[in-house]
Write a structure and sequence with these properties.
This protein has 518 residues and is of the alpha/beta class. The protein is built from 22 helices and 15 strands. Residues 302-499 form the Mannitol dehydrogenase C-terminal domain.
């Protein structure tokens, strides 16, 4: 059994199938496009594409989504087009069962720069309402390649940001209709990041005489850049899912690594819980995605949801598990949640230290969100996520994941009561020694500050006691911690905690066990 259009006419027990005429949908979508998406990777195929299918199945829309890949074009040429732009989406439930769906909402798949003319044609269509993005935070950066585009004419742009700006100018010339450019990447203030990258290019072209005052004014007034918060763990394709699909009779479900080091397959595996909250700023209208569970609200509320998740209810717990998981030799988040000491640590930290200062966004109840994280999402043994992956770039995450809530405790005068948050910070210093709790060496995950901070921790011998002076000015560096730990009155506690964790083999386990037992 092969994944292609022919399979849609077959009976597939255990699989949800498109409930619409796919050929008619694709024809309408190409002729009168409403939704174009950049970034054809795993998250798009597991979430936005499935949302589009929900609307099509319910008869809420008659057009699907067109997608374009500019970074890793193998995602389209090897994993969409050979399968008639179909995807198998597999939701992995905590009880080990799978919910499987053939997703057919992708009406056309494109690549840049190869399909530049077609992409520009889509932008020229007055029917186009929204262009969305899952290109990772790095995709919005004004890097060297984008700066080269800033020195070119719009028609010669090579990067996604350059092509996007050029296509928007083509839209101005063709119809002048407004448009929403919607980042759906998992980063704070994502709409602002997209806007800054876009206008960096447009400003340079305007200065060079490539953009008329009228076109520039149109871009400022008629293009919107809504903020969003997206949350759905979508790890790389897993062998266990591949085997299950093969057992169902599917051929060609091999997992491959592209030239850009993307792990990809004709299927995606993901958790079932999902959240997408978007600022409701769509000047050209939009698909009725609220019918598929998307929350539309104000920018302030989107920001509040992001803070609830990133500062309190999910990301800090992930980082705590990453640090202590690496020290204790764990290789999965679910495995850590089966460890009584670690489960108790993150649960108590969340409820006793996080929830008292949590931002309540109104549209999602923080306690219910947290409960789902602790009881369903993190313990799911079928989501193959690792502490080693999450430990990547920890120095860039601490200011938001811990500094914000510590700052709120400082404002309330309750910072002196904190136990577990300071222990996580001390745990990271202990982690930087690259020696696990048994005294065995391990390799720290990539981090841009590793060369700067690791020598400080490694200069303190395993099994010895440190002083605040041993850490130099590190404890006062608010760019790492989010607050000046010394000024906050927490530096002595962090060093004391570090010493507890650094006493020798078994010290990390003993510390966490003592905390659990009170």
């Amino acid at each position: 059994m092969k994944l292609n259009n022919a399979v849609l006419s077959q009976s597939l027990p255990g699989y949800a199938l498109p409930q619409y005429d796919r050929q008619a949908m694709a024809r309408r979508s190409r002729q009168q496009p409403t939704w174009l998406h950049f970034g054809a990777g795993n998250l798009f195929r597991a979430f936005p594409a499935v949302l589009a299918q929900r609307l099509l199945n319910a008869g809420e829309t008659d057009t699907g989504v067109l997608c374009c890949e500019a970074y890793d074009t193998d995602a389209v040429t090897q994993f969409l087009r050979p399968y008639d732009d179909l995807t198998l989406s597999v939701s992995l439930l905590a009880d080990g069962s799978m919910e499987k769906e053939v997703v057919g909402s992708i009406a056309q798949s494109l690549t840049l720069p190869q399909d530049r003319c077609r992409v520009e044609e889509i932008f020229r269509a007055p029917s186009l309402q929204m262009v969305s993005f899952t290109i990772t935070e790095k995709g919005y950066a004004v890097n060297a390649a984008v700066k080269e585009d800033m020195g070119r004419a719009p028609g010669e742009a090579q990067t996604l940001l350059g092509a996007l700006a050029a296509c928007c100018l083509a839209r101005f010339e063709a119809c002048g209709a407004p448009l929403a450019l919607v980042s759906m990447d998992n980063c704070s203030q994502n709409g602002e990041k997209l806007r800054e990258g876009f206008f960096a290019v447009l400003d340079a072209w305007k200065a060079a005489g490539h953009v008329s005052p009228e076109a520039y004014a149109w871009a400022q007034e008629k293009l919107s850049f809504p903020w969003s918060m997206i949350d759905k763990i979508t790890p790389r394709p897993h062998e266990s899912v591949q085997k299950a699909l093969a057992a169902d009779g599917w051929e060609g479900m091999d997992i491959q690594v592209t030239g850009k080091n993307t792990y990809i397959a004709p299927f995606v595996n993901t958790e079932k819980p999902q959240y997408l909250v978007i600022e409701d700023d769509f000047p050209a209208g939009r698909p009725p995605l609220e019918k598929a569970g998307v929350l539309f609200t104000s920018r302030d509320t989107v920001n509040a949801v992001e803070r609830m998740k990133v500062c309190t209810c999910l990301n800090p717990l992930h980082t705590a598990l990453a640090i202590f998981g690496c020290l204790l030799g764990h290789t999965s988040i679910a495995g850590e949640m089966a460890d009584p000491d670690l489960r108790d640590f993150v649960t108590t930290m969340a409820y006793e230290e996080g929830m008292p200062v949590v931002i309540d966004p109104g549209v999602i109840e923080p306690k219910a969100f947290l409960e789902e994280v602790l009881t369903q999402r993190f313990p799911n043994p079928f989501i193959p996520d690792t502490p080693q992956r999450i430990a990547t770039d920890t120095s860039q995450k601490l200011p938001i994941r811990f500094g914000v809530d510590i700052g709120l405790h400082l404002e309330r005068g309750t910072a002196g009561q904190l136990q577990r948050m300071p222990l996580v910070l001390a745990g990271w210093l202990r982690y930087l020694k690259a020696v696990d709790d048994q005294g065995q060496p391990f390799t720290c995950s990539p981090d841009p500050l590793l060369e700067k901070v690791q020598p400080i921790a490694q200069a303190i011998p395993f099994g010895t006691q440190a002083t605040q002076e041993d850490f130099g000015s590190l404890l006062e560096d608010a760019s790492i911690w989010g607050v000046d730990l010394k000024a906050a009155g927490l530096s002595a506690l962090v060093v004391e905690d570090f010493n507890r964790l650094n006493q020798g083999p078994g010290a990390v386990r003993t510390t966490l066990e003592q905390l659990r037992k009170g």
